[in-house]
Design brief:
The chain is 38% helix and 19% strand. It is of the alpha/beta class and 570 residues long. Among the domains are: 4-12 and 453-569, OB fold (Dihydrolipoamide Acetyltransferase, E2P) (Beta Barrel), CATH 2.40.50.460; 55-215, inorganic pyrophosphatase (n-terminal core); 343-449, Diaminopimelate Epimerase, Chain A, domain 1 (Roll), CATH 3.10.310. The strands form four sheets. The chain has a seven-stranded mixed β-sheet. Strand 15 (497-501) and strand 16 form a beta hairpin. Helix 4 crosses helix 8 (195-209). It is globular, with a radius of gyration of 24 Å.
């Protein structure tokens, strides 16, 4: 079990320039490395005019904008080629909405089929575009590693503008322009934007430089899609990403997109109270389910359509296939647990089965990574002689760096970013993959600097579980990578009641009493009676609880409760 580290105990002095804030707010800011009043102001009060950077600071933005404006003037055929996940799809919607808004008709959105075409550009699609007379192709959230495909497009007379945020490899594609702040020579102030945000920057630049009959500031309405992807794609919610997520949530709460509204209604999510958790646990899985279980264009149409009837049909469909996705993942997880209990665990886990559905392997890899706290590579094979898979990192290593540190011929193809990636590999090489990754891990991991401690923001008493406390916490939202949800330690508290609920009774509910005798509830999903080995979770027991505070809305009524992280003996 991980040791406690209560962050505020490690801080001896509180910076005087933070004294204007309440004590808990000061602690939370300091725990996030914010120690000056200016930093605190920017963090707590994001400002669009002050904190959104000029899109023309991105390398090659001028060149990309000029080429697109030229294509618009000449009425060229344009393809917007987006990735099939909840970054590429919303990013594609941003580009779609821009062209629709300016009244341009000679464009088409294309999202590749995950299983039939795979990730990124593919040559058959490029050749199909050339036959249709396409002369400009704009990628969204992909393309940075597609050297051969971009070269083929060029040979067929198609200029390619790559917009991406994934890590560039040593050789860049010979595109007309590349918008990716991770490439060498780019000095944009924040190189951690998601793919949809790069697309939003491109649209902002086009509106700045072009002469369109579009109201000033209209691009702000597209922040619903940029914010959705910023949160869903788990980029660090710092710097400009924090601002994009902040305003993205504001626009999402006002959005009139029929598909989004139908989907929220289907999930019983109140739009005006939409949070980052609703995106991460409810919306994004349904958008991603389209490519994992079916056709990704259906998710694109859900977010872009203005047809109420089609929006309703698509929301019902995505809701249904997401349930199928859950069932598929649950079955694979049962298999993986059986397989892993009968073998020695190494620094890197490689596990797979030719029968496993490729589209859900990223979720499986994430679940295994979280449970076993090490990098995980999960593979399957569907309709191909080659094996495909997904990988996730526990933070101890950059998985793309790990995959590019093995012998060059081991993988057929790799891609992704620091914490998540995808790969393809031959059947012969899969047998040695774990051995070779384990050796590479020793060279490139950051294991020596990794902490096994669970960071706790502060100790609280049950008396401090109040709406005032929650209000201080809420000022730091939205939470995610780089800005974790504040976690608190409650010591020596007595369990008043225990309940297990859900169809399989695998969710846990606890009740406690504060000093005034008022009830304080705590809830933990997927925490059955065996979730905390060696701990008696029974009525009357004194325990130590690690939890976050959250607001629950049930039938329009707000309830403050704790969300269980860990339960320990006193």
């Amino acid at each position: 079990m991980k040791a406690d580290k209560v962050a505020d105990e490690a801080k001896e002095d509180t910076p005087e320039n933070l004294n204007k804030y309440p004590e808990l707010t000061r602690k939370l800011l300091i725990n996030r490395g914010i120690t000056t009043e200016e930093e605190a102001e920017r963090f707590l009060n994001p400002d669009y005019e002050r904190d959104i950077h000029d899109p023309f600071l991105i390398l090659s933005m001028d060149k990309a904008v000029d080429r697109i404006l030229q294509a618009i003037d000449a009425k060229e055929n344009i393809i917007i080629y987006g990735d099939y996940d909840c970054d590429g799809i919303p990013g594609s919607v941003i580009m779609h909405d821009f062209f629709k808004k300016i009244g341009y008709r000679n464009f088409e959105n294309y999202i590749p089929h995950r299983h039939k075409e795979g990730y990124g550009l593919n040559i058959p699609a490029v050749e199909q575009f050339a036959q249709k007379g396409v002369t400009l192709l704009i990628t969204v959230d992909c393309g940075i590693t597609d050297v051969e495909e971009v070269a083929r497009a060029g040979a067929l007379g198609i200029d390619v503008i790559v917009t991406d945020h994934h890590l560039p490899q040593e050789i860049l594609p010979a595109a007309f322009a590349i918008l990716n702040s991770k490439q060498e020579g780019d000095t944009y102030p924040d190189n951690m934007l998601c793919g949809a945000s790069v697309a939003w920057k491109l649209v902002s630049a086009l509106l700045q430089k072009g002469s369109f009959d579009v109201p000033k500031g209209w691009e702000k309405w597209l922040l619903d899609m940029a914010g959705l992807s910023t949160i869903a794609d788990m980029v660090p919610l710092k710097n400009e990403n924090r601002v994009l997520a902040h305003y993205g949530l504001k626009v999402l709460r006002k959005s009139k997109r029929p598909g989004l509204l139908k989907l929220l209604r289907k999930m019983s999510v109140e739009q005006n109270h939409l949070t980052e958790d609703d995106i991460g646990f409810m919306i994004a899985p349904r958008i991603n389910a389209a490519s994992r279980m079916d056709i990704p264009m259906k998710a694109f149409h859900l977010l872009s359509t203005e047809d109420e009837v089609l929006a309703g049909e698509l929301s019902d469909h995505l809701h249904k296939i997401n349930d199928e996705r859950k069932w598929t993942v649950a079955n694979i997880m049962k298999e993986t647990k059986t397989m892993l209990t009968h073998r020695e665990l190494r620094s890197v886990i490689v596990i797979g089965n030719p029968k496993w559905q490729i589209g859900v392997l990223g979720i499986v890899a994430g679940n295994i990574c979280e449970e076993y706290e090490r990098p995980v590579f999960v593979w399957g094979r569907e309709g191909s002689e080659n094996i495909k898979g997904s990988c996730r990192s526990d933070g101890s290593v950059n998985v793309v760096e790990l995959m590019t540190s093995v012998r060059e011929e081991l993988f057929i193809n790799v891609g992704g970013h620091e914490l998540a990636g995808g790969f393809s590999i031959s059947h012969d090489n899969i047998h040695t993959l774990e051995d070779e990754l384990a050796l590479a891990y020793e060279k490139v991991s950051r294991a020596g600097n990794r902490t096994e401690e669970l960071l706790i923001d502060a100790k609280l008493s049950l008396d401090e579980v109040t709406w005032n406390t929650y209000g201080e916490i809420e000022r730091l939202a939205p939470f995610g990578i780089g800005n974790h949800k504040p976690t608190f330690l409650f010591e020596n508290i007595r369990i008043e009641s225990v309940r297990h609920f859900g169809k399989e009774k695998n969710h846990l509910g606890l009740d406690f009493k504060n000093s005034a005798g008022r009830n304080v509830s705590a809830i933990g999903f997927f925490m059955d009676k065996d979730a905390f080995p060696g701990v008696e979770v029974t009525v009357g027991e004194q325990i130590t609880l690690v939890a976050t505070l959250e607001k629950s809305l049930f039938r329009g009524r707000a309830e403050l409760r704790l969300r269980i992280v860990e339960i320990r003996n006193v």
